[in-house]
Every structure is written in C-alpha cells, then in structure tokens.
## 1
Amino acid sequence: MHIPFLDLGSVHSEMAEELDQAWRDVVLDSAFISGAYVERFESQWAQYCGSDHAVSVGNGTDALYLALVALGIGAGDEVVVPTNTFIATAEAVVAAGATPVFVDVDPATLLLTGDSLTTGITPRTAAVIPVHLYGQMVDMDTIGRIADRSGIAVIEDAAQAHGATWRGRPAGSFGTAACFSFYPGKNLGAFGDGGAVVTSDGELADRVRMLSNHGRSLDSHHHHPIVGTNSRLDGLQAAILSVKLKRLDIWNAARRRAAELYLRELSDLAVEPVPVAPAAKSVYHLFVISLDHRDRVQRNLTEMGIGTGIHYPTACHQQGAFTTDREPPSLPVAERAAGRILSLPLHPLLSETDVKNVAQALADAIENEAELGKPAGDLRSEEGSETR
Ligand SMILES: *Cc1c(COP(=O)(O)O)cnc(C)c1O
C-alpha cells in the first residue's frame, strides 16, 4: 500500500496540456515580470475572493509582511498572532519591525477566538492576524467586532483557505487586507512560490503594489517615492494559476467529500477530528485529527505506506526564534494540541478506497499501540499472542 500525503503529480497530469499551453504563451510573449498574465490573474483572484483588488507578490510570507508595512505597522507596534500557525505568520510581523504577541486557540477548532484575541490586546496593539488554519475560517464576525472596538487592523492569513467561507462570505473579503500563498501544496498552488494581498481599500492596494515593486510610483518607471523591495509574481506562475483557478471549486468540493468520508470512517476510532463550526465552510486544506500516542501511531502509519504530516509539532511561541530574549508565555491549549495532532492524506484525487484504507490502517495502528501499551501480564494471557 502506498497512499501519499499529497499527490500534485496526478492533479497536474490531469490538465497537462492546458498547463503546457499556458506556459508556452508566456514564453512566446516574454511576459515574465508583470504584464498581461499577471494582471489577468490579479483581477480573477480579486473577483474570486469577493474583493476589489488583488496585488500579486512573491510568496505568502511577503504578502503578510507587505500588508503590515503598507498599513504603517512597524517598530513599537504589537500584532496579535494565534500561536497555532505556520511560523511565517509571526515571521512577517518581525520582518515589518513589529512584535508578535502570541495567544492561545480554541480547544476544538484550534483557531483564534474572540476571547484569546482580547487577552492579547494592549495599548500598543496595531493589528491582529486571524489565521484560517486547515481550510477553516476564523469567526470573523467576532474578530471584526473586537477589532473595530479596539481600533486595530485585521489582516487575514488565508494561506490555507482559498475559497473557504464564513457565513457564506469568502476568505479575503472580511479583513482590512487578506494574504494568500500560492505555494505548490496549497489548495491553489503555483509551480513555485507566489502570493497575493487582497483588499477592497484601493489606496492600501496601491501601497502594497509600490512596496512590492521597489517603491516605484504606479505611473512612472524611474520615480521611487518610497523604499520598497522586490516581491512580484512571475508571469509564468500567473498563467499557471489562471488555469488552475478554473478547477479550484471542483478540487475544494472533492477535498470536502473526502473529508466527509473520513468523518464517517473514523467515527468508531479513538480519534477526534478537528470540527468545523456551523457558520464555516471548510476547504479542508488539511484533515487534522487529535489522538493519543501520536508519534508512535504516525511511525506505524509510515511503515504501512501512509503519508501523514503534523501542522504543527511546536507552537510558535515555543520556537527558538521567539524564545531567545524572553520566557515563552504559557498557552496550554495549543501546547497540548501540538503533541496530539496528525494530518491525514488529503488531496483532490484521493479516492474513496484510499480514504477507507487510511482509516483501516489508522485503526490497526491504534490497536497495535493499545497492545504495546498493555502490561505484560495482559499480553501473555491473550490467546495466541506473543510477548515482544
Ligand atoms: C504557507 C503559509 C504561509 C506562508 O506562505 P509562503 O508562500 O510559503 O511564504 C503563511 N501562513 C500560513 C498559515 C501558511 O500555511
């Protein structure tokens, strides 16, 4: 048995001709940096997100960094970040010169909550970054209300939530700005790095565009009124993304079907799948469960040919990068979850048989673990079982 965690090759081979053609067009036009393919994808992406502007950038981390800088957030400012996220969320805050303030997450969804946001707000707070982790959106009504009351910006980290909705509204349409990654493994992935900042604030979009393009003014090639950087999406990637975007809803629906099947198949096992709130529609970037003896069960699955992942084994506030100059705060929900979560194989072409095989393998792995965990006396008393 071999069920990989992710299978990009099969997804791409299904549409190989269209992708090859898109790539050839860009080469023929030599439209490598900015130009028509990038502009087309930007307008498609803004529309998909229910927002007015999408500014494409080099990657998702830069999208967060540039959104923060464009909002004037930097030295002396604090930004509230859920500790259960990919390190990039916090990294971008530091790159902008601000300080990430880590807060705990909901014990069920493992996402930022209104209560945890409130614990992180101080007079220096300039923004919060709700992270729509695993494909599920944060409760944006509650976050928006608290942010409004506190006068802070909301920057959605939607790197795992392409097409996810909260009360029917898509990720990217709630925050002051929303940041996406098109890293190959995301629900919409390029053939390399890519990212975008989405916003309905035209001035903010212009500032992100200038910052991402050497601080260059939007109407004059040799005029640089501000200091920026170089973080742009390639024409080649934009063309690939436009082709793949046509299938995003189909792929997300396939992920959702696989996830629903997992929920049925796993219902009798001693595992807790991360639940989805009634107002949220998840695009299941990841299918995450919590269980006992996670590391040993994972090793067992690897031996059986099942690919899995952990997102993430160390909460950000406990990473060396953030513990050098201070004692990490105690954020017990995320700390406990980090030792128990496991991401099962999930991609648009995962078949019903694959899901059933993963569920069976997981049942076997948990049973093996239970056998090993028993006192030796119990083990010997079982008929036919050998002591180790
Ligand atoms: C992938 C990811 C990022 C960073 O995106 P890159 O394109 O890899 O820089 C940021 N936040 C989250 C939650 C992610 O999953």
## 2
Amino acid sequence: MSQKKIFLVFVAISTVSLLLHHGGHLSWTMEAFHLGCSTLRSHPSPGLKPKHTSVAFLKTHKTASTTMQNLLFRFAERNNLTVALPVQACGHQFCYPRSFTSHFVHPHTLPPSIITSHMRFNRAELRRLMPNDTVYVTILREPASMFESLFSYYNQYCQSFKRVPNGSLEAFLEEPWRYYRPDEKDSMYARNTLTFDLGGDKDRPATDVAYARAFMAEVERVFSLVMIAEHFDESLVLLRHLLSWDLDDVLYVKLNMRTPSSKRSLTPGLPAKIRTWNSLDARLYDHFNASLWRQLASLGQACVSREVRLLRRAQERLMRSCFGGRMPLLRSAAQIKNKDLRPWQPSAKVDIVGYDLPANLSRETSGPAQEHCLKLIMPEVQYTRVLLRSQSLRYRRGHQQQSQPPQQPLRSVLPRHLQVGIHRSQSPPALPGPRPGPDSTSTPRPAAGTLSRTTRLGLRPSQAHAS
Ligand SMILES: *[C@@H]1O[C@H](CO)[C@@H](O)[C@H](O)[C@H]1NC(C)=O
Ligand SMILES: *[C@@H]1O[C@H](CO)[C@@H](O)[C@H](O)[C@H]1NC(C)=O
Ligand SMILES: *[C@@H]1O[C@H](CO)[C@@H](O)[C@H](O)[C@H]1NC(C)=O
Ligand SMILES: *[C@@H]1O[C@H](CO)[C@@H](O)[C@H](O)[C@H]1NC(C)=O
Ligand SMILES: *[C@@H]1O[C@H](CO)[C@@H](O)[C@H](O)[C@H]1NC(C)=O
C-alpha cells in the first residue's frame, strides 16, 4: 500500500516537474519566437560571440555619418582600440578629396582597428592598412534631400554653387552645366557625391548603364552593410547584429545638423531634377534601400521594431542620466559657450546646430561620467583632436617602456610602405593644439615635424578643408 503511495507521489512529482520543465521551455520558445532575434545583452557574458572590433566606416557627406563617426570613436575608446586618424597636414579628414592612401594616416595611430574619418574610398590601400577581418560599412541618404543639404552647406565654398545667381537651387538645376565644372577641385560636392566618396566616377553619363551596374556590384561586394540615413535606427539594428555589439554600443545623439530655418522644402518637380542630375547616386540609393529592407525582413519585423524601441528608450535614459533630466540645449554654433562643443560652420549663411551643456551640469555629474556625456555631443573636429592626443600619449608611453631612443620609434613602427621619405620628420608630430576651435579646420596649422610632410604630400591648405 505504502509502495503504491510512493509510486503515486513519484508519478505526481514527475508530472509536475515535466510540466514545469516543458512549460518553462515552452515560454522560452514563445519568447524567442516573439522576439524573432537573438536576445539583447547589456553585459558581455562568456560563451557569446565576441564583439567584432575591426571596422572601416566610409564616412560619406551630409548623411548622418558624423553621428556614426562619434559612435565609433566612443566604441574605440571604451575598448582601447586604435582609430586611424589623419596626419595633421590632412586636417581632420584623410586629405579628401584625394584618393585615400596609407600615407595620410598619422603614425601614432598604427596599426588601426577602426577607421572612420572622411576619405575618398580606396579599397586596395585600406586592405593594406586594416586587419584582414575588417568589416566595411557605409551610409547613403536619399539623393534629393541630400543634394539640397549639400547645396546649402557648401553654397559659399563650392565654385559650382557659388556661380549660381541668388544661390538658387532651381537656377542650378535648370542648367547645371552652365555652373558645374567637372574638373574643379571641389566639384564632387555638386554631382554624384556618394559615388565619388565611394571611389567611383561621378561624371559617367547616365546612359552608361553597364558602368552603374558594375559599380553597384562592387560596392555590394566590399561593404557588408550599407546603412540608410532615413532609416538610421533600423540600420543600427543591422549593424549591431553584424558586429555582435550590445545595444549600449549603438546609442547616439544626432550631430552636425542645420537649424530648421537653414533647411528648405523642395518644390514639386525638383526631386526628379536632382535625381536626373545625380543619376548614379539615385541608382545606388534605390538599390541599397531595397537591400536594407530585405535584410530587415530577414531579421524579422518583430525583432527589428522591438530593438528600435529599446534603443530609443535606452537613449532617453542616457540623456536623463547625462544631462540631468533635460536635453542638452540645441543651440546654433555661435551661441555655444563651450568651445569644445562648437561645431564647424561652412559659411555665415548656414546655421549648424550643436549642443551646449545645461549650465549646472558639472554639479550633477563629474569625472569619467561627465567626460562620457561630453563626448556624446562633441563635434567631429574637436573629438578627432582629443583622440589623436590620447593615442599619441599611449603610443609614446608604449615606446618609452621599450626604452628606445626617442628618435627611433617613428621609423621602426611604420610598415615598410610608409617609411618612404619619413626621415625629415623624425621627431614625432606635435600634439594637437590645446584650444581646438571651428576656425582651425579651415587652415590646419602644420605643426613642428609635419611641415616637411605638408610639402611632401603637395597639399595646399584649401585641400585640407571642409567636411
Ligand atoms: C583599457 O585600458 C585601460 C588602461 O590601460 C584599462 O584600465 C582598461 O581595463 C582597458 N579596457 C579594456 C576594455 O580593455
Ligand atoms: C589574417 O591575418 C592573420 C594574422 O595576421 C593570419 O593568421 C590569417 O591567416 C589571415 N587570414 C586571411 C584570411 O588572410
Ligand atoms: C536675383 O534676385 C533679384 C532680387 O531679388 C532679382 O531681381 C533677380 O531677378 C534674381 N536673379 C535671378 C537670376 O533669379
Ligand atoms: C526605402 O524602401 C522602403 C521599402 O521598400 C520604402 O518603404 C521607403 O519609402 C524607401 N525609402 C525611401 C526614402 O525611398
Ligand atoms: C539646474 O538648473 C535648472 C534650470 O536652470 C534647474 O531647474 C535645476 O533644478 C538645476 N539642477 C540642479 C541640480 O541644481
């Protein structure tokens, strides 16, 4: 009798545990099904795929790419990764619009894991410079709004735009060939800018369909992800999955925007004209917007929208913790008190907005936390200088520890192909100046030790200019 009881109890326990187990498993499966994607982790846990740390991000013009650059800079700093930065003679870009070569890379930033500053893409040179498992990423923007943005941003800088009477976009598009000179050094801002940045031929006629197809195929082959500015958060979700990064790694604040009054809406008919004038870019955009949505679909709509929601919520939390419950103040550059936060302005006519900190921020946060918050809203030029300074310090410390004579390291650390003609600048290039400001972009001061480099690269100051 008691044996029967024991048996019944055993059966009961087994059933319950089976139910519990099965139920737990069922709900886990349900959740996984519901998410449709790998669950988010806020802390790295062992056994998970390690984060991918070799990234080449081609920073295209006027495409929210500054926001991406800031995100990558912060990721690099958190993970002690080396970011390839331009030699000072190149300004804060890799001597754009010249085609990228590894000679443009500052020797204190070698060998790099990440590269993200403006350049004209050159696959062969990047392959020599970057680790062989580098993931290539770039970003495109809808051509009509992008061209309006370029036209306004470079209105006083690009000759093709300066010639247009009354700075009228309509007038330019009426007769583009009247104002546009394909061989002028700044002509890439006036036609197929994305194609040019990607290393393509911006002046290939629209009738050359074979060229457009081949170029697109090449971009598709090299870049693992082509983000779309209009779908920025969704693009970040794809990026996060591609690189096995955490949600925390893709938080951002929008940077380098114009004030609403500097923007204008396009009259009907204008977008079509812009697409015709920039036909290579238009093809690229349509192709990669379609492929972005295919990738999103294969990740699963539920997963994507859930991650986008979580991203925005985490972003709000970050802003609250950084800026004491208030958004940093969106201000035009001239009004920003903190020079480290003042964005560069292309001309008096365009108002680029940046952020100023709430006046009493310093009392609320301090130390590393505040620095982290400051960097979230630090403009490109200033952040580039800050990074170069810290990487140069790290480089020197590393070389002092090896107790080598001070003149040796520069030569010995350089890959062979970079050693050519380096003998004149044996002393390491000076650290960036203590007071970065918007002005310093337009005329990069060649510092001690880089003067010879300036001459060697054959740069005129004007070429090292403009973002
Ligand atoms: C980065 O380097 C610092 C100082 O060298 C060290 O304290 C920190 O743990 C490192 N962080 C990572 C993620 O490696
Ligand atoms: C990448 O580089 C590593 C070390 O530098 C090497 O061991 C590996 O074979 C390379 N992989 C490929 C695919 O070239
Ligand atoms: C430029 O503006 C002036 C004054 O607003 C106007 O008289 C002139 O016709 C305009 N020129 C063109 C080419 O639109
Ligand atoms: C990109 O493609 C998606 C899906 O086809 C479409 O809904 C969206 O409007 C496109 N975006 C733009 C800016 O054309
Ligand atoms: C910071 O300043 C804002 C507005 O000036 C004020 O409302 C807030 O209470 C201040 N916070 C602290 C912690 O002083």
## 3
Amino acid sequence: MKKHNFSAGPCILPQEVFQKSAEAILDFNGIGLSLLEISHRSKDFVPVMDEARAIVKRLMKLGDEYEVLFLGGGASLQFAMVPLNLMKSENGKAAYLDTGTWAAGAIKEAKKLGTVDIVSSSKEDQYSYIPKDYKVGSDYDYFHCTSNNTIYGTQMHEFPEVDTVMVCDMSSDIFSNARDYSKFDLMYAGAQKNMGPAGVTVVVVKKEILGKTGRDIFSMLDYQKHIEKESMYNTPPVFPVYATLLTLQHLENNGGIEAAEQRNIAKAKLIYDEIDRNPLFVGFAKKEDRSFMNVSFKILDENKKEAFDNAWKAAGISGLNGHRSLGGYRASLYNALNIESVQVLVDVMKSIS
Ligand SMILES: *Cc1c(COP(=O)(O)O)cnc(C)c1O
C-alpha cells in the first residue's frame, strides 16, 4: 500500500507522474524505444526540454526577459555558479542572508571568490526565525537569500527591497506559493524537493544581469553558455527533466500555483493547529516565520516518544524523522502530499496526547 510520505527530499510526487515516468522508461510515447535510450537531440526529446522550459515561465508568470535552464549538479552547484557568474572578478562583493545550513553552504562557496557580507543571521538562535533587520545597498554585486529553510522549517513570507541583483535559493518551496517571481533576478531549485526526481536543478535567470563579472568562466559553469545551447550544452539529465515536466503539467492542470498554494495553506494550518493545541508537542520555528512546506516539531514528554513513533509507523506514515542536525520530527508537506495524509498524522498526534 502507498505510504503517507512526509519525506523532506527526495520527496513525494503525484502518483500519475510515477506512472507516466515508468511508462516512458519502457516505451516513450509509443515510439518503440525507452526515454533512456534516445538521443537528447532527437525530435522526440527536444520538445520535452522546450516545453519544460516554457512551462516554468508560464507557471511563474514571467516574460521573455527570463531564461530557464535545466542543469545538473544539484542546488549545491549553484552555490558556486552564482558567484562565478555574478560576482565581479575585481573587488567582488556580495550580501548574503544566513538563515540555515543551506544558506551557510552558499556563503562558504561565495567566500572563495570575493568579499561576502552576512547582512543578518539567526544562527545564534539555532536558525529558528528569519531575520528582518537589514538593508542591502547598491554597492553589492548581488544579494542571496534562501526562501525556505528545509531543515529548520522557517520560510520567508516577505522579501526585502534591495538595491542590487536579487538571488534566491528556492529549492524547497518553488511552485508552492504564488509569490511575485518577477521580484527575483535569479532563482534556483534542486528538483527533488517539490518538483521532480533528484538529478536536475532549475535555474531561472534574467538575461540582463549576466556577462558583467570580467571573469572567463568555465563553459559548463557559465549560464550564458547554457542559455545559448538551450540547456543542451552537454547531455542533459533526460529522465529528471521529463519527470519534472510531468509534475509541472500536473500542477498546471490542477489550478496552477495559486490552487497549490491554497491546498498547502490548508495542510499547514491543519498540522500547526494541532501542534499548538496539543500540550505534548511544540513547534520549532517562530510562529510568524513558520514554513508551509517543512513543519519541524518536538515531543515534550520523552516517555511518550516510543508510543508516538509506533503509532505513526502503524498508520502508514513515512519520512517523519527530523534532520539529523536538529532531531525531533519534520513533516514535509510538498505539493503532491494530500491533505488526507496530513489528517492521518494529526489523528495520530491526537491519539497520543
Ligand atoms: C536540499 C537543499 C539544497 C541542496 O540541494 P542539492 O540538490 O542536494 O544540492 C540547497 N538548498 C536548499 C534550500 C535545500 O533544501
């Protein structure tokens, strides 16, 4: 039986996507060949890449000033590609907001290329909130933030107005809410959190911000090269691109980002209400910064932990353990998770108190 999958990533995808992906591996569109054994430059695959790039822009309501890339290397490679492509080679300087382990990972890489100012950080408070007390001036080459902190369960519900290029790691909440995506000059997300299988990363970039560093960039790390070659500079990860396209088509056919946002709000409310009502549980993140995607919480009475763990496992729930660095529990409510699954978890929580 299908489990209620609360995993933080790789994550649950629509069942229809699993089915269609499996079919495509056996026989792609009835051509008598597997998706895995055809040329990425064939007339059968090129439309997949073209439509995958187009649907991202449609869903985000972005115009022709943006380009969409499907790249390998994970979101982690973007920690390096962003400064390589945006930080001036001489006296380069960038502003970063430190809201968690992933943000810190991005900072670590950027420091290898130039000056990095951490404009604000919630590290001292175990990353339990999103700092809001900072300004970013035009003396920076760009500003980098992380919209959703997957491990801690905090999310930026508002974004600052900055006087420079705005970059955001949206790995764990892309396509989950109807934010104004045109506020950003560069967005990236590893597919495996809310969009597709591991192995591909989506980068959405405004063309005008590129080509200004004075640096000769390795071709594979150069956004402009990938744009020129329409994400086919080298052999793209064809299967993750196809499965991501199926997920995004599923999203578009079910009311787009706006409808997904409403479903995600309802799911998050259901579980946060129980965390706040039930004296046995406590949420980790500061309330106003709570994530609608990753709900981190703890059990207060350690004596009831075993009973709770047994009960959720018996209810067919999977992937509820917190990140190893934080402990406790983490319920990830990505787009494909149904509210019925959240109800099952909430019923278990009620039964323990
Ligand atoms: C998971 C995650 C990453 C790292 O993604 P990879 O694709 O594994 O490199 C980066 N940023 C955030 C916010 C994440 O959740």
